[in-house]
Amino acid sequence: MLTFIGLGLYDERSITVEGQEALRASDRAFAEFYTSKLVGTTIESLESHHDVSIEVRDRAGVEQHPEEILEAAEAEDVAFLTAGDTMISTTHVDLRLRAHERGIETRVIHGVTAQTATSALTGLQNYRFGTATTLPFPYAHGADGLPSSVTNTIDDNREEGSHTVVYLDIKVDNEAAIERVDTDEAVEEYMTADVGAELLAEEYPDLVGVVVARAGSPDPLVEAGTMTDLASREFGDPLHLLVVPGDCHLLEADALVELAGANREELDIV
Questions:
Q1: What distances in angstroms separate CA 82 from CA 8, 94, 190, one per listed residue?
Q2: Residues 80-90, buried b or exposed e (16+ Cβ, 10 A)?
């Protein structure tokens, strides 16, 4: 059995009760934190809180060489852990399909995702979000200006009146990041919302954005402003993301004004 368990958004307590029970009952637990991370805890705290030993895998160990995970799941109950929801944004469908090819039974135990938390914290209605995009560090994509994957997504969503979630780049033990800082040590980089807003301001200086920082923590932050304005602010510890509102219903506009400090006159209200 291979059970995919979403750990939620922040710390060792963010997991669901069902997920916790499955994790503690497993014979072996693997995890990856290269796509996202629980910034409110450590591996050691996770292990202590749940009374398990967790084997952390890098990207190659999950996506290119998953044999150890699959072989273990053929004989034992194995838990595979990720931050958020293991099949939303942080997707491991390929690993699940490989398990099925071997005749391994699988199940998914969901966790809270950044997408749903963002809707809840901003007051923007979940069904009115369009396609999401990820804003990479400039050194990671190598092109001049914003990648078309970002601009096309924002432009297409705005044309439809939809909101856009802009995930901000995370680099964990990435070769380009390690070379850039000239070190042999592990490198973790988290794009902050001010940096993301500064990059977006090159193309959209007057576009309204909403920062969501530390969703799922005891002190989440939600602040709105133009990209130029947001680029000059500080938003504290990661993880951060940005939302570009599309056409706002009156209730959504009320929520952004009250919950995020948005300027009503800068919003597109329908």
A1: 8, 15, 17
A2: bbbbbbbbbbb
CB 117 within 8 A of CB 216: yes
Alpha-carbon gap, residue 118 to 122, rounded angstroms: 6
Beta strand 164-168 pairing with 240-244: antiparallel
259 within 8 A of 223, measured Cβ to Cβ: no
How many CA within 13 A on the CB side of residue 161?
A: 10
Distances (CA, A) of 217 to 124, 170, 269: 19, 19, 30
177 backbone dihedrals φ, ψ, rounded to 5°: -70, -40
Dist. CA 84–CA 87, nearest whole Å = 9
Q: Nearest CA to 243 among 111, 88, 129, 90?
A: 129
What are the chain's domains?
2-109 (3.40.1010.10), 114-266 (3.30.950.10)
DSSP-derived pairing of the beta strands 133-135 and 164-168 = parallel
List, for residues 171-208, the tens digit of each pLDDT value.
876 555 445 555 555 568 999 999 999 999 999 999 99
Place of tokens 């995919």: 4
Q: How far apart are CA 118 and CA 125, in angstroms?
A: 10
Residue among 233, 213, 216 nearest 225 (CA): 233
| Total residue count of the chain as it appears in this document | 270
Residue 122 exposure: Cα atoms within 13 Å on the Cβ side = 31
Per-residue pLDDT tens over the stretch 14-64: 999 999 999 999 999 999 998 888 999 999 999 999 999 999 999 899 999
